[in-house]
Design a protein that fits this description.
Layout lengths: L11 E2 L7 E7 L5 E7 L2 E7 L6 E6 L18 H9 L3 E5 L10 H18 L5 E7 L1 H12 L6 E5 L5 H19 L14 H15 L3 H12 L17 H19 L2 H11 L11 H7 L3 H9 L6 H10 L7 H10 L10 E8 L6 H13 L5 E9 L6 H17 L7 H10 L6 E3 L6 E3 L4 E2 L12
Parallel strand pairs: 5-6, 5-7, 7-8, 8-9, 9-10
Antiparallel strand pairs: 1-2, 2-3, 3-4, 4-6, 10-13, 11-12
Helix pairs in contact: 1-14, 2-3, 4-5, 4-6, 5-7, 6-7, 6-10, 14-15
Length: about 475
């Protein structure tokens, strides 16, 4: 889910755009140039400083809901990051992707970003070094770009990324399957292939979650729904980690409602199914008792059921075991394996940044990615960084810039600089107050927060694709 950043550009036509492309350019005071246009229906923006240092940061945005598409084209996670990079000589560029970047546009994202890089090299010049950066679903695109075009990228920087999106959609199905089975039995809710019923099914899931929060038994079942996908009990970027059982369940339920019932629930699945040629998700052969036994959130389930006078975990697991399963369409599964999962090669150094309380792109994704790099790449080329906050992509521009500078130092020097939390937080503080704001995607509030880099070990993914 992308943060709403706007870019305002205008200008005159630039001669000689590539086939299928249109372009405009404008010059700002001081010699900075802005290029905008479309390539094969994908809007793009390029910002070129007056004194370009030869480095291009190519940014890939996250998943856009049809109801929430930012104006213009984002070229960084935060506008302050964009401004700092340009002021310090870096060129920044991004495609919005076809269809305004809505939905599961991973395949389009890779294609459109390569087309923009081609345009840049033809009309601006070949960069001395190119960094592929991205947030959320765009983090997957950023990693895929380097894996599939290894000679064109010198480094990768991902924020709140998912590298195995097939696992995300399978876990999302597990969550809504538990909600439907235990909290909305008998209701007409289609979890996959919902078609015209998608919005009604989405709303019914959300209503069931709201009702469940009103009773101890409902809260216990919500804890179970979140636990089968390792969803954390921390939602708000601007609030401390919840500590009581009820607070943790309530926070976890916000992820269940907004990320997995609304975001990639029945409506989001319809968009994915249109792209993939069917439903790619399944729970045939899934034992939810075993998933719970391996979950990093099983303590919350135990506590929530213990606090529910009428709660019976064993009985609820039996109901889940007996409930009819959902099968995938083979063509759609193949689509996901082809477009939605990284291999884990490291043709260039990679730095990742994740918030510890992220339930939209769970931290398990980073552990899985590191495992894949151990199998298929060079572990020494990977550096994983963490900030101790709730929320999805809850980073300040200082967090983002410190991460990018860590990667650039690695590219320049051939070795990673120190990335202890103490050093990173000192670097964040040194950026100054203008770079400390963090956007809470749940509330829309944008507030300054203290530096929060930390050490962290994520849990293992419960349903990895490999």
């Amino acid at each position: 889910m992308g943060a709403a950043l706007a870019g305002l550009v205008a200008g005159v036509v630039v001669g000689g755009p590539p086939v299928g492309a249109s372009a405009e350019a404008s010059a700002a005071a001081g010699g900075r140039k802005t290029f905008t246009g479309e390539i094969d229906g994908a809007e793009y923006r390029v910002e070129l400083p007056a004194r370009w240092n030869g480095t291009l940061v190519l940014y890939s945005h996250g998943y856009f809901l049809a109801e929430w598409v930012p104006e213009g084209v984002q070229v960084a996670n935060r506008v302050e990051t964009e401004q700092w990079l340009i002021e310090h000589g870096y060129a920044v560029a991004a495609s919005k992707f076809k269809n305004d970047g809505i939905g599961y546009g991973v395949k389009d994202g890779v294609t459109d970003q390569v087309a923009l890089l081609d345009w840049f090299e033809k009309h601006v010049g070949e960069p001395r070094r190119t960094v592929s950066s991205g947030m959320s679903q765009g983090g997957l695109i950023a990693a895929l770009l380097a894996e599939r075009h290894p000679k064109r990228f010198d480094g990768v920087a991902t924020m709140c990324a998912e590298y195995d999106t097939h696992a995300t959609w399978n876990s999302g199905l597990d969550i809504t399957f538990v909600v439907r089975t235990l909290l909305a039995p008998g209701e007409d809710i289609e979890l996959v292939r919902a078609g015209e019923d998608a919005a009604a099914s989405r709303d019914a899931l959300a209503a069931a979650i709201d009702r469940a929060l009103e009773t101890p038994e409902g809260r216990a079942r919500l804890a179970l729904a979140g636990a089968v996908a390792n969803i954390p009990g921390w939602y708000a970027a601007h609030e401390p980690r919840p500590t009581t059982t009820d607070e943790r369940v309530a926070a976890q339920a916000l992820w269940t409602k907004w990320a997995y019932s609304y975001g990639i629930g029945p409506v989001g699945r319809t968009e994915l199914e249109d792209r993939a040629g069917g439903n790619p998700s399944w729970n045939t052969g899934i034992d939810y008792g075993r998933l719970l036994a391996r979950s990093s959130r099983q303590d919350l389930v135990r506590d929530a059921y213990a606090a529910a006078p009428g709660g019976d975990l064993a009985a609820d697991l039996k109901r889940l075991a007996k409930a009819p399963r959902i099968r995938p369409d083979a063509k759609a599964v193949e689509y996901q394996y082809r477009h939605g999962i990284v291999r884990g090669t490291t043709p260039a150094p990679v730095v990742t940044l994740h918030s510890t309380g992220d339930g939209g792109a769970v931290t398990d994704q980073e552990r899985w990615y590191a495992d894949q790099i151990r199998r298929h790449g060079d572990p020494a080329s990977l550096r994983q960084l963490w900030v101790d906050r709730g929320g999805h992509c809850s980073f300040s521009s200082a967090d983002e810039l410190v991460m990018l500078r860590t990667l650039l130092d690695r590219i320049d020097d051939g070795q990673w600089p120190s990335t202890t939390p103490t050093r990173l937080n000192a670097s964040v503080s040194a950026m100054g107050p203008a770079y400390q704001k963090v956007l809470d995607l749940g509330t829309g509030a944008d507030l300054p927060l203290d530096p929060a880099y930390t050490n962290f070990t994520p849990p293992r993914m419960l349903r990895p694709s490999r």
